[in-house]
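Case study B.
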Amino acid sequence: MIDAVPPALVFIVGALVVPLIKGKWKSAFLLLLPVIGFINLINIPEGANFVVSAFGLKFIFGRIDRLSLLFGYIYHIIAFVALLYSLHVKDDIQHVAGLIYSGSALGVVFAGDLLSLFVFWEMLSVCSAILIWSRRTTAATLAGYRYVLVHAAGGLCLLTGIVLYLKETGSLEFGHIGLHSTASLLIMLGFGINAAWPVLHAWLPDAYPESTPTGTVFLSVYTTKTAVYTLARGFAGTEILIWIGATMTVFPVFFAVIENNLRRVLSYSLINQVGYMVCGVGIGTQLAINGAVSHVFAHCVYKALLFMSMGAVLHRTGKINCTALGGLYRTMPVTAICCIIAAASISGFPFLSGFVTKSMTIQAAVENHLVIIWFLLMVASIGVLEHAGIKVPYFAFFGHDSGLRPKEAPLNMCFAMCISAILCIAIGLFPNCLYKLLPYPVVDFVPYSASHVVGMGQLLLFSALAFVLLLAAGVYPPERRGINIDADWFYRKGGRLFYYIMDKVMNGTNRASEKIFVGGLAGYLGRISKDAPARAALLALVPVWVTGGATGERLSLKKASLRKALQTGTSPVGISAAVATIFLVVVFLVM
Amino acid sequence: MKEKAGEEKKYFFDKPRNVKIAFASFFSVLAALLIAEFFIHKHVHLSWEEWPEFYAVFGFVTFVLIVFAAKHILRPLVGRREGYYD
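Model:
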């Protein structure tokens, strides 16, 4: 058996081979890659592997421990599912971008030093932008550019932080950093932009819904969860993260309720879910970190499944807005059932994956006496049920009959969705299999106590009852066409304002300059220069004539004859010499 | 869910009987959950978790508040026509 290679390498090299293979072999190769990657991963021993020393620095491409391994496992599983889901896609660019994207995420997760982490981090941004642009619509192109700009800013922030950190500590090793200096603040902010922190989050609901049906499945997993990993590695127990995370869980709920585009609803829901993870990382106890990381595992599956089901709807109908959909369960039953399983999982229904993971973070909050945080997380849980649990499946597959009768999703999509749905159920039924893989041993946490099951059951089903009653009473907000502005308003409108101001200031200056210098000043100087000898001579001679007693008509006569003499070049030599001398004196004095 | 599909074949929820069954099971589960609470041992971390039917009321009320806040506060603030940015 050959030695193992860095986990990222399998995907990145594999991606470059994809365009060379044709037909069915390509499909087989795409599906084989994550499998090879997974076998490779479990053959790498724990500790720092693939260490390269260069330029006096140490680069580690395979730091294997329980934290990175769990991310590695789920990334391979999702890569397999997402590739299966996109097998029908004929566009090689999407496969290549998707594979390098997954590989870069693995690169970040297994990087033991900040510099190689940064390189993979940037590759992540580039590949995700390509996945967005692959939709090839104007909206996708523009959203992609905004996405690139935001992530370029985040990347620069991270790089600045890394350079300062190297200067500060003399080491590039990526372990616990903690928030204590400008360097660490910049690093954390760089991570935070990818984690879609409040106000820095707008790139996510702006760009993800614009990607292709298949591209969004990749996107929904890697960028944000990789950011959660880096925060868990570098900033576990940083108190501010608790509040950032709790805010992230709550505010997207309200945006999701009034959003018409279902993939945008899921994007807001993604921020909400990452909020639980960030909050867990901030609490930082063993239970909280376990909660955050197990939630990453469960979340990657059900969120990818939700995006897959909506991708299937978009693929078959070409529509994704609530106002245009409805009643699709009739002809897309497999997609509908898979969507419902994912929706129930994300809402945290007992015996499904969300239930056994989210509750860990919430319990960690309670154990640390964070009552307000507990309250916010519970409110957010009800919000999740509202938008991801009920709204998405209801408005796509039930609700009013849109009259659309699309075919069921293609076979490869159905398989991918079924595998994910089975995983959601399996994690819910056998949580111990997941718990065994967590960074810390799971002690004193029992998800399936009667009290917990009944409590969550009441919470969720009575929220659902509220939905039923609000809908029946006609007060549930009707879906309507339109968009909702978000924090991206500041740079989308701000960008235009900047352009407007620049246009006015720069072009205005240009016009004014032309008017003053070309139009006015040049002509004026020309006239002045033409008359200069006469004026200078008059300036010098008039006082002399006046003191000599010349006044009135005589003075005017003298002036006129001097002007004429100078203009025709017939002035007496003495005067010419005097003018020249005055000119030279003036020049001498000025110089 | 309740509309008729019209011209073509009838699907699951096009039959009023199935809709009725779905609602009946939903309400029975709700009732079962309300009753079950009195027969189980509650593990409570926070004092209000002991209140009878706390989670049912909390879930219902919060859901309604979220929907109303989104509809009446957020939507008027951030809602714009399609093509607002064009």
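The beta strands of chain A are 47-54, 57-64, 483-484. The remaining cases will be described in the next quarterly update.
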